[in-house]
Amino acid sequence: MTAEETLGDMLARRGFSRRSLLKFAIAMTSSLALPPSAAPAMAANLAKSKRRSVIWLSFQECTGCLETLLRSASPTIESLMFDFISLDYQESLMAAAGAAAERTLREVVAANKGEYLLAIDGSIPAKDGGVYSLTGGRSNLDMLSEIAADAKAVLAIGTCAAYGGIPKAYPNPTGAVGVEDLVSNKPIVNIPGCPPVPEVLSGVLVHFVSFGTLPELDDRKRPLAYFGTTIHDQCYRRPFYDQGKFAKSFDDEGARQGWCLFELGCKGPITHNACGSLKWNGGTSFPIESGHGCLGCSEPDFWDKGGFYTSLAGGSEVGWRNAGVAAAIGVAGGAAAALSARSKVKADKAEPGIEP
Amino acid sequence: MTALAAFGEDGLVDALLMQIAGLLGRLAEHDEEGSIDLRGLPLSASCIADLEKRLGRGEVTAVIEAAGRSTIHETSFPGVWWISHADESGRMIANLIEVALVPMILRADPADIILSQRRLPGCTHVAAHARARAA
């Protein structure tokens, strides 16, 4: 695909009808909690769109975020969207290395100044001038500052890039921080999760390509459509919580009956993410469906908030305990609130998104 | 079963039916089409089944094979369409109620029509002979 070719041209060349694109837009508007009536406009805008340059920098990370995003389902129009995004720099995926890779980075930045999206995975070690993580002799700190300066927007992918994540866990020897602690003059979208749900990234990219804007964000800069409700509100085990039916151990009768995992440490009531609705592995399942409570991995400092198997209501650890009291008070009308919140999100969006 | 199911499935289905009736009114009076994204609502499988049963089946059923299968049927209430989209792996990616004269996904796109206009003459015997001579 050439830089000048539109997505509509590319799809026609590959034998996809515009009806396929409309179908994709209908699915994406549903995913983004936009009204279905926005689908024709999204499809029309996508058809006219041209490639967007994306620079992806990996800092203090485990490559789990990149792994999960690469393991999308079978070829779909959605995967074609990733063809349409020009991933111009990603150290783990690109063929070039060393000086050639650095030259590529400089050329991409110069050619797309002010227009490229910058994706970051991994936290940034800020202690001691950032000496704890270097690429080509340059600190992550310096690279972020330099490349973010000319970006249209910055996507912080995964909990480490969003909030510091596991590298920031006590005693945080490298002084790890998230992107928003260092970049203040650019629009930032946080897509937390350890790893993040792949469909959230594709939703953000599609929104950006089709409307030229970023989706509506919550107060932690997360896409509201995916992080507007808690795992608890979406959970299929929620009726058992309402009925007071809890598994007491992972092999008791309650666990076998699929009862609520709250007392086994599930952090679903205070964790905002889309695992319960989008699920994982092509919509197959998510941790709670597999019998394990939510770890709260998309929330800031989840690693330091206490035991994964300590109940929010009865835990002795300070971090989750405080959150747990609030959660226990607030969950009673949670499902109705979830419906109401999602309906409101849809109703409020005549012209979706925020300007980057 | 979702939480809302526990709060009263009948009430939720009734509310959806009233919303659909409102959309039908707008279509009849103002020629304004509308739709409801069922996946965006925390509906249980039994709730969906109840809604489908109450809406019933009408005269039209259509299947689209485009980036996966889409099934469309008109309910027993003309103008109310039930549309389910699946991807290539068969996973449902959208489930909608659309209130319209004809669902938008069934209409041919103008860009595809232009391509058809260019492509169709290539199906004539004249074009086939020309290709054979060129080969």
List the helices and strands and how they pair.
The complex is a heterodimer of chains A (356) and B (135).
Chain A: H1 7-13, H2 18-31, H3 39-48, E1 52-58, H4 64-70, H5 77-84, E2 85-90, H6 98-111, E3 117-121, E4 124-125, E5 134-135, E6 138-139, H7 140-148, E7 153-157, H8 159-163, E8 176-177, E9 188-191, H9 198-211, H10 224-227, H11 231-234, H12 238-242, H13 253-256, H14 275-278, H15 318-330, H16 334-347
Parallel strand pairs in A: 1-2, 1-3, 3-7, 7-9
Antiparallel strand pairs in A: 4-8, 5-6
Chain B: H1 3-30, E1 34-37, H2 45-55, E2 61-65, E3 69-74, E4 80-86, E5 92-99, H3 110-119, H4 125-134
Antiparallel strand pairs in B: 1-5, 2-3, 3-4, 4-5
Helix pairs in contact in B: 1-2
In short:
The complex is a heterodimer of chains A (356) and B (135). By secondary structure, chain A is of the alpha/beta class.
List keywords for this structure.
heterodimer; A: 356 residues; alpha/beta; Rossmann fold; Cytochrome-c3 Hydrogenase, Chain A, domain 2; 3 domains; five-stranded parallel sheet; two-stranded antiparallel ribbon; 16 helices; 9 strands; 38% helix; globular; B: 135 residues; alpha+beta; Ribosomal Protein S8, Chain: A, domain 1; five-stranded antiparallel sheet; 5 strands; 44% helix; elongated; disordered N terminus
Structure overview:
The complex is a heterodimer of chains A (356) and B (135). Chain A has 356 residues and is α/β, with parallel strands linked by helices. Chain A is 38% helix and 10% strand. Chain A has a 5-stranded parallel beta sheet with strand order 2-1-3-7-9, with helices on both faces. The radius of gyration of chain A is 21 Å and the shape is globular. Chain B has a single domain, classed as Ribosomal Protein S8, Chain: A, domain 1 (2-Layer Sandwich). Chain B has helices at residues 3-30, 45-55, 110-119, 125-134, and strands at 34-37, 61-65, 69-74, 80-86, 92-99. In chain B, helix 1 packs parallel to helix 2 (45-55). The interface between A and B is large, with 44 and 37 residues.
